[in-house]
Design a protein that fits this description.
This protein has one domain: Jelly Rolls, CATH 2.60.120. It contains no helices and 11 strands.
Length: 110
């Protein structure tokens, strides 16, 4: 899906790591949420509240998921899932364009 229709965009940006990672929140009619953002090259560790699906739209990075010791390469067009109440680390090699979908506890994508 290359676009989202009938959404509300939260005007305030989500800014992390001194502006090196930014996103905007989209709220859908059913209350579900996604964020669309950009990550500049660097190393970052994120905490999750709910499970997430991270879709990398462009760029490439490495991810280390909870419980893993190895790093996995992710390129534009690929995605990965992160459990809720956990943390994961990223090594962003090139500017990465991403979409993060939040998953409700009953298993549906927010």
């Amino acid at each position: 899906m290359s676009e989202f229709n009938n959404v509300t965009v939260v005007k305030e940006a989500n800014i992390y790591f001194e502006g090196k990672v930014t996103s905007r929140t989209l709220v859908f009619a059913d209350g579900s949420r996604k964020t669309l953002g950009i990550m500049l090259p660097g190393e970052y560790t994120f905490n999750t509240g709910t499970p997430e699906i991270m879709e990398i739209l462009a760029g490439d990075l490495e991810v280390q998921l909870p419980g893993d010791t190895a790093w996995r390469t992710i390129k534009g067009g690929e995605s990965f899932e992160v459990p809720g109440q956990s943390k994961f680390s990223l090594r962003v090699k090139n500017i990465a364009d991403y979409c993060c979908s939040f998953i409700e506890s009953r298993g549906t994508v927010q």
